[in-house]
Amino acid sequence: MNGLLKKGIILHHIDQDIKIIELLGSGGQGEVYKVEYNNKHYALKWYFPDTATPEQKKILEDLILKKQPNENFLWPILLVESEEFNSFGYLMELRTKEYKGIVDLMKNKCSPSFYNLATVGFHTSNSFLQLHSRGLCYKDISFGNLFFNPNNGDVKICDNDNVTPDAQDFSGVLGTPKFMAPEIVRGDRKPSTQTDLYSLAILLFYVFFVHHPLDGSLEMKIKCMDAPAMKKLYGDDPIFIFDPNNSSNRPVKGEQDNALIYWSIYPQFFKDLFIKSFTDGIHDPLNGRVRESEWRNIFIKLRDSIFYCECGAENFYDLDSIKANQGTANACWSCNKIPTLPYRMKINNSILMINYNTKFYPHHIDPQRKYELIDPIAEVSTHPQDPTIWGIKNLSKEKWVMTDKAGNLNEVVPGKNCKIENGIKINFGSSEGEIKY
After folding, report:
1. Cα–Cα dist 366/383, whole Å
2. Identical fold at 10-92 and 342-436?
3. Over 70: is that where the pLDDT of 243 sits?
4. Which residue in 47, 143, 212, 422 is a FRET match for 103, CA 20 to 30 A apart?
5. What is the pTM of this model?
6. What is the 3-state secondary structure (H, E, C) of the chain?
7. What is the mean pLDDT of the chain?
8. Where are the domains positioned within the chain?
């Protein structure tokens, strides 16, 4: 693969040289290289001469001054210019090899757990919330610019060089086909934070259902996916494949099985947000689209709802289904047997399933705390002499008070455990949780 910049070339920047190590890839605007700068490896996006416009340079200069919204963005950190090569580019952090793309997920090159996928969803929606809260518009959300670590759910968002203030006089990209909001496809609107919300919902649907939310039987009937066909399917007459009031675009069994399989697995409270996104969100863009904070909340709830079937598969605790089933869970999607529900803790208005690897975070016990999935305040542990006895270990700096079924009070100091039994209540200070079975 040949590039504009050859291996070993030195670009001079103030008092530090930038050495080209290898070409990583190429896109519509330019090429991305692995480089060495200041004794550290970075990625350098280098623009083709025809895309190295004064407008693009101004966007980069503004983004560098603004700094990244959070650590998940591979944000421009340094503008690099060269008269010799008649162009410019920018340095960003290098995406490491453990991060995979949505295409890898679709081709089954990685198999993240549902828990880690929920974490991907949380980090993605939270990151775009941070971006939008700064008054910035991404404009081109698609699966080409999201990468995730399947082992822990961490994400990296790249191609941030088209980010501009929302409602700024438009210049640049409209978006990626099949990710653009219907009003952009029709030519009625330009990119904005409102259209970002639609693209975000498309991206999240791909992550969790490995399919496009509008590609059903109507897409299968199209013989030539030309511009008029694309405009009709994604702009003029978009119909969600699981629209509860319109079944004309259901996925075709044997052809579009990913959507059918995964739709049957996830809990209704999760699917409801996608239904809203692609029904109300299509017909009422201003008021009907799901906000980033709503997605963030639901991904926390989805993580907390996971429990394990005896076969080892992750399942989801869906209170509405349990009530409909008179207290039992739905059949396991993997082995088709009815799984035994584990202990769970009700704290405030949330339910947290207690598994062997469950961790409690500050937001679980204090709704006023912001979501931070870094330092847990408690975790499930086993008795050192009897692994069948489970407890909740206090990892916080605060003392808890435990009330057993008989009404007896016991202190749970930091570093100690509270035995998991039905009916036990734990006062965390700011809230109280009750263990149920």
Report:
1. 28
2. no
3. yes
4. 47
5. 0.94
6. CCCCCCCCCEEEECCEEEEEEEEEEECCCEEEEEEEECCEEEEEEEECCCCCCHHHHHHHHHHHHHCCCCCCECCCCEEEEECCCCEEEEEECCCCCCCEEHHHHHCCCCCCCHHHHHHHHHHHHHHHHHHHHCCEECCCCCCCCEEECCCCCCEEECCHHHCEECCCCCCCCCCCCCCCCHHHHCCCCCCCHHHHHHHHHHHHHHHHHCCCCCCCHHHHCCCCCCHHHHHHHHHHCCCCCCCCCCCCCCCCCCCCHHHHHHHHHCCHHHHHHHHHHCCHHHHCCCCCCCCHHHHHHHHHHHHHCEEECCCCCEEECCHHHHHHCCCCCCCCCCCCCCCCCCCEEEECCEEEECCCCCEECHHHHCCCCCCCCCCCCEEEEECCCCCCCEEEEECCCCCEEEECCCCCEEEECCCCEEECCCCCEEECCCCEEEEEC
7. 94
8. 10-92, 100-297, 342-436
pLDDT in tens, 326-335: 888 999 999 9
Which CATH class name applies to 100-297? Answer: mainly alpha
- What CATH architecture does domain 342-436 belong to? Sandwich (2.60)
Class for domain 10-92, per CATH?
Answer: alpha beta
Task: Please report which confidence band the pLDDT of residue 12 belongs to, taking 50, 70 and 90 as the band edges.
Answer: confident
Q: What is the pLDDT of residues 364-412, one digit of tens each?
A: 998 888 888 999 999 999 988 898 899 999 999 999 999 999 999 999 9
